[in-house]
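Task card 7
Instruction: Convert sequence to structure tokens.
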Amino acid sequence: MDYLSTNRIKIPVIGFGTWDVRGEKGRKAIERSIENGYRLIDTASYYENEEIVGKAVRNSIEKGLVNREDLFITTKIWPNEFSDPETAIERSMSKLGLDYVDLYLVHWPQNSLDLRTRAYNGLEKALEEGITKYIGVSNYSIEQIEELADRSSTPPAVNQVHVSPFRYPRPLIEYCQDNEIVIEAYTPLEHGRQSDNRTLRQIAENHDKTPEQVMLRWSVQKGLVPLPKANRPEHQRLNLDIFDFVLGDDEMRMLDNLP
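Output:
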């Protein structure tokens, strides 16, 4: 697995999203993702699946498929937990059944500035205590990141936001990258919207790839970390098979401006 590195973080260049991945079927899908080569697994307290994520991780380690230090596990604190982040973190870590996570995020910048600051300060404490290696935010605007800078001592290593060729918040991405904040891209495949786009289909044909693979390759070439979700093993493998081709400058520009 390739990694993206800044002065603040070293993170796999592609991850496995687990939104709406639940139950035994979900646990097996997560274990398959690890077996197929994913090393970044993204969950959250809001997803209500931290227990199966933790179980899948532990099972994969016990089977000898991977070492814990080679995995990058992310979870997030939800707005209704902001007033007591210590309890929320303890609850999530208990559900995961892991000694630490690699990345802990504030899930949404909802509620008051004071409350979301309290949540982030709770993550700073978790960082100091070794509960997490890195901390960051999700769905934050430039203004909200700058507000955070005045109220904390640890700059966020990551901002996880909705990004794809169909949803390209260029100013936010440029701001984050200029400030060494890695952008993780959730919903990078837009739930099948790509199948109807003629430009995307043509670029995919040019490279003998699927439109989904082109979208993920666009993300990687932008310096983003996409987090696709895929339950089927063949889709998991296809989503990782994006490192044997390069999109040209003209193709990237066309993808930047998809309708």
